[in-house]
Specification:
The protein is an alpha+beta fold. The chain is 46% helix and 20% strand. The protein is built from three helices and five strands. The chain has a five-stranded mixed beta barrel with strand order 1-2-3-5-4. Helix 2 packs antiparallel against helix 3.
Length: 152
């Protein structure tokens, strides 16, 4: 049985390499590329130690996970840095004026770019106060009061 597996180990790792490359091109999520790269050392081991299937498998998984953990965050950050906020995502971080008082127990309203939006907050905010948009949940802004010291 081991001889049978050893005979086809090289072809198996080549198949893993090709399959993971194809999956990566189809998804473009930087997940399977690491295992495509990890199949290369496993392939090399299968050439020199064809009967050591366990070592090939351990090297494959260790290499794949280590590559993914060490390099994926940097690559995702690099490739996703040019994403431009569109629509309401671009509102986050901007200021609005409270036109109906907001409290933790009741919604209020803010004027943002001459449009009224429902707003919620974890603090009491009076009419006329300037708020910063922290997030957008459905059709309401989540805001926080901007202190006069913060606006300078």
């Amino acid at each position: 049985m081991i001889e049978f597996l050893a005979e086809y180990a090289i072809w198996f790792w080549l198949l893993v390499f090709v399959t993971t490359i194809i999956i990566e091109f189809m998804t473009v999520e930087f997940v399977s590329i690491w295992f495509a790269l990890a199949s290369i050392p496993a392939l090399v081991i299968s050439i020199f130690m064809p009967t050591n299937i366990g070592l090939q498998t351990i090297v494959f998984f260790l290499t794949g996970f280590i590559l993914m953990i060490l390099t994926r965050p940097a690559l995702v950050k690099y490739f996703k840095k040019n994403i431009v906020s569109t629509n309401v995502d671009a509102y986050i971080g901007k200021s609005a004026i409270v036109i109906t008082a907001i409290s933790p127990m009741s919604r209020g309203q803010v004027d943002f770019e001459h449009m009224n939006w429902t707003a919620i907050s974890s603090e009491d905010i009076e009419v006329g106060a300037t708020v910063r948009i922290l997030a957008i949940e459905g059709n309401k802004f989540i805001v926080t009061k901007i202190n006069k010291e913060d606006s300078n």
